[in-house]
Amino acid sequence: MIFVTVGTQLGFDRFISIVDEWAAENSGVSVFCQIADGSYLPSACKYVRSIPADEYRRYFEEADVVVSHAGMGSIITAFDYSKPLIVFPRQLKYCEHRNDHQVATVRKFRGRTGIYAAETKHDLKSLLNNWSGLDSCSQKLEVSSELVSSIVEFIET
Amino acid sequence: MKKVLAIASSGGHWVQLIRISSALPYEIVYVCTDQSQESRAEGQFYRVSDFNKNSLWGIPSAFFTALKVLYKERPDVVITTGAAPGLMFILLSRFFKAKSIWVDSIANVVEPSLSFRHALRLADVCVTQSKQVAEKYNVEYWGEVL
């Protein structure tokens, strides 16, 4: 099952429409989308607008691949569940977010095992075509001990 | 044991906050804009209305929630990873003699968030998770949640 998520805050019509187009061309693959308040309604995928926290993590658990906007919640959760993650950033030029921080996020995490980035329709569809061959996010990432100890020091002084 | 109030908007802000607070040796009270996140909170949980610069409707409700929660819980410290509702708690924490800390989202690699710029005036300390931002804006970098 391919789990597609746009996060909790905003719809992402351009992204969902590309995924829907791919799903229509690959009808044998199960695709489930979480679309928030997006206007585009998929016709080739099942979808919901929002998912409660526990169910969201279940979808991550059951997914073979997660395809997501470049939000930190999705990226961190993909690492937590060791899933292959395709990220597609929202872009300022399409008025999809207030700035291009998702593009910067993609560049920060690109290259880590299990994270695959696409910024165009062509690249996203190419990655989806290879969905069954993608590696998982196998790296275990911990909170920096320096961050924790600095916060504790701040609290204690 | 000291009490920390940890607040974040749902999504990436919340996920990062959980990673930080799970590592802290204190009693944690959680606040989030999404009620369903209560299952992830290992402590008392409150929901707060969301708002941002494009949608201000949630501000009055968030204000009263912050007052109510801060009055009831009397935390020693307020910690937030954003976004705007975190600012509300930071602002009001001063009236309840709580220290406050803003940890900017790890997603803000090149520029800090708009809320961070407000937090610089309001919080006792603001930290970024980007060395690039720390250098450019002369703010503290203490490490990252990943």
For this entry, give a set of tags.
heterodimer; A: alpha/beta; six-stranded parallel β-sheet; 6 strands; B: 146 residues; alpha/beta; seven-stranded parallel β-sheet; 5 helices
Topology at a glance:
The complex is a heterodimer of chains A (157) and B (146).
Chain A: E1 2-5, H1 13-25, E2 31-34, E3 46-48, H2 53-62, E4 65-69, H3 72-81, E5 85-88, H4 101-109, E6 115-117, H5 121-129, H6 145-156
Parallel strand pairs in A: 1-2, 1-4, 2-3, 4-5, 5-6
Chain B: E1 3-8, H1 12-22, E2 27-32, E3 45-47, H2 59-73, E4 77-80, H3 84-93, E5 99-103, H4 114-122, E6 125-128, H5 131-137, E7 140-141
Helix pairs in contact in B: 2-3, 3-4
What does this structure look like?
The complex is a heterodimer of chains A (157) and B (146). With 157 residues, chain A is an alpha/beta fold. Chain A has helices at residues 13-25, 53-62, 72-81, 101-109, 121-129, 145-156; strands spanning 2-5, 31-34, 46-48, 65-69, 85-88, 115-117. Helix content of chain A is 40%, strand content 15%. Chain A has a 6-stranded parallel sheet, with helices on both faces. In chain A, helix 1 (13-25) crosses helix 5 (121-129). Helix content of chain B is 36%, strand content 21%. Chain B has 5 helices and 7 strands. In chain B, strands 3-2-1-4-5-6-7 form a 7-stranded parallel sheet, with helices on both faces. Chain B is globular, with a radius of gyration of 14 Å. The mean pLDDT of chain B is 94. Classes of the chains: A alpha/beta (157), B alpha/beta (146). The interface between A and B is large, with 37 and 48 residues.
